[in-house]
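$ ./design --mode recover --in tokens.txt
reading tokens...
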């Protein structure tokens, strides 16, 4: 499991990134339109639309029945709707990396990643509940407003919710879980100390790559805080993965799909 993040964040993040990507592609396409005839441009759009529709159909076929129990973790059921939310975001991320999520190999990889992610998140939330981590009404309301603020209007926000299979009640539940999850991770999984030697090594590799591309890298002192933060996040992520593996050893996990 390379990455652990609560499903809701994955879905909305992917939706935001996909929207940004579409805007960038639109700007690039706008420059090229002048060099194309109207007939060629129209045919390209039709072909692209057909490809998108075909891929979307294949992606939909990867989803599971919403009320189907796809796994049981310590007597807690994980349903198809939860699986589908993470699946959708994983598919989007594959597309953003220029990969086809509908090939047999990619579909199998996405399925495994989705199940691993759901099991890991469930175990972590169970531990958060055991240790009394909670989300207040004020915290949920604040994060809800911040999430809505990522979209240009209520219509776009509601569309994203529908695509994620959420309504306002389930959305607030997801946000509350995300807050508990974040509190637990930040309190229980402390990042290791980052040394100056590690920062220097990271910087030297970064600077050499920039130099090879003919770019003048910034001075170490200018980027040292960002490098330190990134290395801390990497160390915390490594500890988190190990922590989940330890939780799995003492957990009862039954995968149904």
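writing sequence...
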């Amino acid at each position: 499991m390379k990455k652990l993040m609560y499903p809701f964040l994955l879905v909305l993040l992917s939706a935001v990134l996909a929207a940004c990507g579409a805007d960038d592609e639109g700007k690039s396409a706008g420059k090229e339109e002048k060099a194309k005839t109207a007939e060629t441009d129209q045919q390209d759009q039709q072909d692209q639309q057909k490809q998108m529709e075909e891929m979307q159909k294949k992606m939909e076929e990867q989803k599971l029945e919403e009320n189907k129990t796809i796994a049981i973790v310590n007597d807690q059921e994980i349903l198809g709707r939860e699986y589908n939310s993470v699946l959708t975001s994983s598919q989007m991320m594959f597309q953003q990396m220029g990969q086809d999520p509908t090939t047999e190999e990619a579909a199998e990889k996405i399925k495994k990643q989705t199940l691993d992610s759901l099991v890991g998140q469930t175990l972590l939330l169970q531990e958060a509940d055991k240790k009394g981590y909670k989300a207040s009404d004020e915290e949920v309301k604040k994060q809800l407003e911040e999430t809505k603020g990522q979209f240009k209007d209520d219509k776009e926000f509601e569309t994203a919710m529908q695509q994620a299979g959420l309504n306002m009640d389930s959305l607030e539940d997801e946000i509350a879980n995300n807050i508990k999850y974040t509190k637990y991770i930040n309190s229980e999984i402390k990042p290791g100390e980052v040394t100056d030697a590690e920062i220097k090594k990271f910087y030297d590799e970064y600077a050499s790559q920039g130099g090879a591309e003919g770019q003048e890298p910034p001075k170490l002192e200018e980027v040292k805080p960002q490098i330190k933060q990134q290395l801390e996040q990497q160390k915390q992520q490594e500890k988190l993965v190990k922590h989940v593996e330890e939780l799995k050893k003492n957990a009862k996990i039954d995968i149904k799909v």
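exit 0
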